[in-house]
Amino acid sequence: MPIIIRSINFKKGGSALSEGAPAAHLQEQPPVMCRVKGIGHFGRIYNVRNASASGRKNHGHSKERKVKKLISAKLAGNILLASFGLVAVFHVLVLLRVIPSDIVWGGQIGGSPANLQTLETISLILTMLFMLIVAASMDYILAGKFKTAARVGVWIIFAYLILNTVGNLASAVSFENLIFAPITLFLALLALRLAIEK
Questions:
Q1: Using one digit for the tens of pLDDT, what is the confidence trace for 116-147?
Q2: With the CA atoms of 144, 61, 66 and 81 taken in that order, what torsion angle do they form, in degrees rounded to the nearest 10?
Q3: d(CA 29, CA 69)
Q4: Phi and psi at residue 90, to the nearest 5°
Q5: Do 47 and 38 meet the contact criterion of CB atoms below 8 Å apart?
Q6: 172, 184, 174: which is closest to 130 by C-alpha?
Q7: Assessment of whether the complete model's pTM goes beyond 0.85
Q8: 197: region left, alpha or beta (phi > 0 left; psi from -120 to 50 alpha)
Q9: How far apart are CA 177 and CA 155, in angstroms?
């Protein structure tokens, strides 16, 4: 950062007079522009810390740019919408008993139709809500004042899908381990791509 250093001649004793000259002849030297890179030990520490912080920031931006180059936000959002649509159909088929309940919820609620219906209904509503959030964040529907809330919602979807992936991996049902876990992880990455879009 450029600074201005003004040079004034002082008389011995502290008065602002040039040696041997009266007060009326006191002249202020013109400003001199110079650039200071760092003064002593403190200056060196300051420069090193600034360079380190700048490097971390640039590194973070570089990672974000790489992610954005892999897939566009629009494509990620469209795949999410299509996938959530298929998930909604899947929940409906489970409710209709077309798909056996043993392959969902860790296979632990197949003997309780009431619990299965409650959980699948909640999952269906949640999936439709996710579709609404993604559509709003992509301006497919007018969100208006809720656009910021929709963007926050995409981050919530990302966190939910990560937790869902962990749950699928911990399940005792191999179908959830081998099929659902990779799918939910893939959807989580798509949600992340959509979330980081500005």
A1: 889 999 999 999 999 999 999 999 988 788 88
A2: -20
A3: 56
A4: -60, -45
A5: yes
A6: 184
A7: no
A8: beta
A9: 24
Residues 6+ apart with CB under 8 A from 158: 188, 191, 192, 195
HSE-CB of 34 using CA atoms within 13 angstroms: 10
Q: Which residue has the tokens 């919820």?
A: 105
Indicate the DSSP class of residue 35. Answer: E
Whole-angstrom distance, CA of residue 23 vs CA of residue 46: 41
Question: 132, exposed or middle or buried, with CB in 10 Å at 0-12, 13-18, 19+?
Answer: middle
The pLDDT value given to residue 115? 85
Q: Which amino acid is at 53?
A: A
Domain parsing of the chain, residue ranges: 2-67, 71-195
Residue whose entry in the numeric block shows the structure tokens 């494509």: 75
User: How many Å apart are CA 136 and CA 129, to the nearest integer?
Assistant: 11
What are 105's two structure tokens? 């919820």
In the chain, the amino acid numbered 140 is Y
Q: SS3 helix, strand, coil % of the chain, rounded to 5?
A: 70, 5, 25
The torsion angles phi and psi of 189, rounded to 5 degrees, stand at -65, -35
Tokens of 197: 């879009």
